[in-house]
Amino acid sequence: MNARLQLLRQQDIFMRIIKSKYYSGFAIVEVLLATVVLAIGFIELTRAFSGISRVAVRAVAMTRASNLNHAIMERVMSQNFDARGNEAGDSALDFDGVDGQVDVGNVTAGIQTISFWVEADDITSRTDHVLDLNGTDYVKIVNGEVTVNNIDNPTYYINGVSGNRTIASIDAWYHVAITTATGINASAVTIGRVAGQTPDYFDGKIDEVRLWNDVRTASEISTYHTKSISSPFSDTNLKLYYKMDNRSASVIYDYSSSSVHGTSSGGVSWTNESASWTITLGREGETTWSGNNDVDDFHTLSFVDGNYTDLDAGNDNFTGIGGRIYVKYVSLNTSGSPYTFDDSATPTDYKQITVKVGLPGSTDSTELNAIKSSKASQGYTLTSAPYGN
Question: Residue 383 to residues 27, 68, 69, 317: CA-CA distances in angstroms?
Answer without folding.
Answer: 60, 14, 11, 21
